[in-house]
Amino acid sequence: MQSFWLIFQLLFCLALGFSLAKKLPPSFLKIAFAVLPYFSYVLLIAIAFEFTEILDELQHPYQILSTSLSIAALTSLGAFACCYLLFKWAGYQPSSGRVSAELVIRSLINISYAFIALALGYGLHQLFTLFDLQVNINTWQLLLVFLFLIGLDLAYSPLDRSWLNWKILLVPLGCITGSLLGVLLYASWQTQIAPQDLIMLSQGYGFYSMSGIVVTELRNAELGSIALMNDLFREIFAILLMYGMGWRYPRAAIASAGATSMDVTLPMVKQACGNDFIPHAMLSGFILSVLAPVVVSVLAVI
Asked: Using CB atoms within 10 A as the burial measure, which of 9, 34, 256, 290 is most buried?
């Protein structure tokens, strides 16, 4: 029931922003649109801050970090590859963009911003701990604000019948299938985590604000920590693939972003892939955001 409440909050804030966009004062909208491109970095700072608190409480943090990083890498690359193959089978050609020095430099700068934000969140936590300051950051509420801002932005985005194109469904299908294949590959050489648990961890699709809560509640704190970090790392891999390959293979890059393509990485989709692929990102992110808590919850209790 908790997971459905989380999904409702996300969709409500997105719909609220979309419905109120044309009714709000222009001065408010100007500020909102100015803040939106940078809000994902605010979220990364908050997540890193929260993540550091969990890291300090774990008995074997480096082993958990290594496991999470391996799962995230294989599921992200699996989603990318599977979506690419599906669209190649459907007859779609790669985009006609090309790598330029300017694009590469801009991509590296944007990626560095994400890592700087993570480092800043870690540093802030250590600083507050040093001075014995108690600070609670609610990343969930920040995410809801972010979705409201995205809803405002979507109200001014061009919408057309491409949103109803059934072939767009190949993007979330590629993410689901590729994530499963990637984690099964990981299961072939590791024995610490049961295969069914690995499958559960792979189906968070980057929805870090949900997966850690659900897995901790239904299984245990260790798996919950892996779920949180795995989905956080998936978002980082999505950023890398978005800026590194999104110009050429936009649909596959969106698939690697999983559920985050509807919210956190949506501005990156616009920048790296172009406005034409916003429908792919929104529909895929919506489907995966609805599926993730249901699938993870079911797999956690089996």
From this structure: 256
